[in-house]
Amino acid sequence: MTRKLFGTDGIRGTANIHPMTAMTALMVGQAAALHFRRGDHRHRVVIGKDTRLSGYMIENALTSGFLSCGMDVVLAGPVPTPAVAMLTRSLRADFGVMISASHNPYQDNGIKFFGPDGFKLSDEVEADIEARLATDMAPDLADASMLGRAKRLDDVVGRYTEYVKQTFPKGGSLEGLKIVIDCANGAAYKVAPEVLWELGAEVIKIGVSPNGFNINDGCGSTSTDAMQSAVVTHGADIGIALDGDADRVLISDEKGQLVDGDQLMGLIASDWNAKGLLTGGAVVATVMSNLGLEKYLQGKGIGLTRTLVGDRYVVEEMRRSGCNVGGEQSGHIVLGDYATTGDGLMAALQVLAVLINSDKPASVACRLFNPFPQVLKNVRYQGPSPLDQPGVEKAIQDADKRLQGSGRVLIRKSGTEPLIRVMAEGEDDALVSEVVDELVELISAAAVA
Q1: In this structure, are 149 and 206 located in the same domain?
Q2: Among 16, 25, 115, 315, fewest CB within 10 Å belongs to which?
């Protein structure tokens, strides 16, 4: 079965425009409830959201869909995506749902599902949910006496705070560290500063005043200038930038220089490997991760397994291969010993633990390798994919041959937007830029052909 609604990370779109409408959310809620409704027990679903204005609309629509199928609904309110995954397991729910468009602007929103085990759904399950939307679900709705009930869950922040703190080394403390935390005016605006403060840090907070419209707006992991500047201004030891739903993280060292997800994965993996904690003999990353990470890990005797873009695919490979560290260059870091999905705050704590034990500044401790020159550009298109146009495939193959032995070319469609992502990396910076520019020009022409 093919999927039309679901992309690489759930359903996503502009609020109040299909598919991100109240009607669609209600029907998706019904379809998901019917998929997970098994047995005669009282069924339960957890709903979390970020701070977008449209979250109220989608939350109520999904709730109505679940209730109409006899599902009880636990409303967690604004919480990070990994908190929903944790709560789904902790509360023995049949499944969980997070309402968020992650790093996108406030106009967008999305719906992400988690199974009862706290893991994101497989392509097959998502396809089954979509297939139900094309059927008459009315006969399977609950009788009037069996409708579900909805209630708010008290102290979600407290539950998640304690959960995350337990992943920090036992007896460890952040005392003496000054940390800038940028919460992107998103889901972690309460919990992230609280965790850092309770562990002993001096905390400088930015991006903690959500108003429904300012999520990811000039702040967070996709707009890190404010965080980097605050680190320098306040003389902080390190800066942490989360995205809107707090499942990804980027770091700034004490000089205000950015540290990406590849460096963070290398840091955590090498630390865990030295302590005998790394499992599976490898790190799982996506095709977007830099060749520099691969070479660095090889030098440590650690492998690198690549997957399709999307932390869901990273997690699937981690489960298959038994690896406990994985993630994406963009800052999704998955720590399999503690979580079932990317957790920006949890990953940041592991980085801070290494920083404390190394007795080195972040500019040294977090710089493990020199990345290969890498250029990424996007081509926006309408209608059919320009990658299907004549001549494009051969041009990509020819470009890849030019970099063989010293680099690579990667062309892919975005799973969340009508974009073709054109990426190349290699030892020769000028050649990499030339290859990308030529491919962008060709694909742009094909997009309007």
Answers
A1: no
A2: 16
Provide CB contacts within 8 A for 203, sequence distance 6+.
179, 181, 193, 196, 197
Any idea what the CATH number is for the domain that residue 237 is in? 3.40.120.10
CA distances from 271 to 78, 101, 169, 276 (A): 33, 32, 13, 9
CB 362 within 8 A of CB 348: no
SS3 75: strand
Residue of 102, 252, 270, 289 marked catalytic: 102
- Under the banding of pLDDT at 50, 70 and 90, the label for residue 254 is very high
Could you confirm whether 102 is annotated as catalytic? yes
Which of 92-106, 241-255, 293-307, 381-395 has the lowest average pLDDT?
A: 381-395
Could you count the other beta carbons within 10 Å of the beta carbon of residue 431? 16
Task: Write out the two tokens for 413.
Answer: 């469609």
Cα–Cα distance, 402 to 298 (Å, whole number) = 24
- pLDDT value, residue 385: 87
219 and 292, same domain (yes or no): no
- Give exposure, 74-85, as e/b (b: 16+ Cβ within 10 Å): bbbbbbbbbbbb
Question: With 60 as the cut, is the pLDDT of residue 1 above it?
Answer: no
Is there a domain that residue 162 lies in?
no
Whether 2 shows a pLDDT value over 80: the answer reads no
The residue out of 348, 365, 382 marking a domain boundary is 365
Residue 449 confidence (pLDDT): 65
Residue 184 and residue 207: Cα distance in Å, rounded? 5
Give the separation between CA 2 and CA 388, rounded to whole angstroms: 19
Over the stretch 144-167, which tens digit does the pLDDT of each residue have?
999 999 999 999 999 999 999 999
